[in-house]
Write a structure and sequence with these properties.
This protein is mostly beta strands and about 120 residues long. Helices cover about 0% and strands about 50% of the residues. The strands form two sheets. Strands 2, 4, 5, 6, 9, 10 and 11 form a seven-stranded mixed sheet that branches. A four-stranded antiparallel sheet has the order 1-3-8-7, with no helix packed on it.
Length: about 120
């Protein structure tokens, strides 16, 4: 399985970030995998943002839920992240990953395949 993410690279504060992750070698509708977005600001640790499930369910980090949305296009085998009203503090490397869930319903899990990441810079 390979994942490849892409996005705009540079945004201004208050703009909307849209990232897409293409999945190769596996279907995003295959039970029971989930598909996640994670980010890492410069010099900081990884932050889990949210997931979309094989059946289309979504779960978000509570701290980001108000301005985050994850969707998918099953015809293209892609899933996407939308982050509204970005701030400079959201400058980070953004990754997509496949998640092997701890159970058949979402209760966390482990990432087994990752994309290489795409750098997003928010600056005026």
């Amino acid at each position: 399985v390979q994942l490849q993410e892409w996005g705009p690279g540079l945004l201004k504060p208050s703009q909307t970030l849209s990232l897409t992750c293409a999945v190769y070698g596996g279907s995003i509708t295959t039970s029971y995998y989930y598909w996640s977005w994670i980010r890492q600001p410069p010099g900081k640790g990884l932050e889990w943002m949210g997931v979309i499930g094989y059946e289309g369910s979504t779960y978000y980090s509570p701290s980001l839920k108000s301005h985050t949305s994850i969707s998918r296009d099953t015809s293209k085998n892609q899933f996407s992240l939308q982050l509204n009203s970005v701030t400079p503090e959201e400058t980070a490397m953004y990754y997509c990953a496949r998640v092997v869930p701890a159970s058949s319903s979402w209760d966390g899990g482990r990432m087994d395949y990752w994309g290489k990441g795409t750098l997003v810079t928010v600056s005026s």
